[in-house]
Amino acid sequence: MKPFSFLKFLLYSMAAIFLCAYLAFSFYENLFYRQAIPAHIQVERIVEKESDGWIRESCGGVVFQLSADTIDRIKKDGTRFLDETLIGRGYEDEGNRNQRYYTYAAWKKTPFLGYEGIPVGAACLTKDNKELAKIIFQGWRTEGSFYTQKHEAELLIIPEEGILIMTYFG
To answer: Which among 2, 5, 24, 117 would be 20 to 30 A from 72, CA to CA?
Structure first.
């Protein structure tokens, strides 16, 4: 094998390995985010995601597009619908060692006045998207949205926008 052919083969092989690793990580990351959302809250796709960390401690979030059925149920039944399940869909099995960590408090109506601006995780999610920051800030500060919290994370649903925002810090 010629030296140039070997280097070309090596370069393509390394590129393929990195691509496969990136795709596997992206798949796992998306699955991880979805598993943190209670099962009865149906999400269609990820609209935006951002994180400033990797693997362990980090700050960031993800924005999901809610299904039309979920939006209708929230508008009709509010917290009664949202409180049906407070455990993330990937952690519902009895005895799952992470169940406590992915169990949310009861849902509440906004406005939420506990932060000066928006939660830290939301600030990391929106650092490059001022329009999204404005939507989230309005969602926290005005009536018509719903939120819940757990250790190191929050969920905010803005029915009028048809989105669920999960933010985390830690």
So the answer is: 117
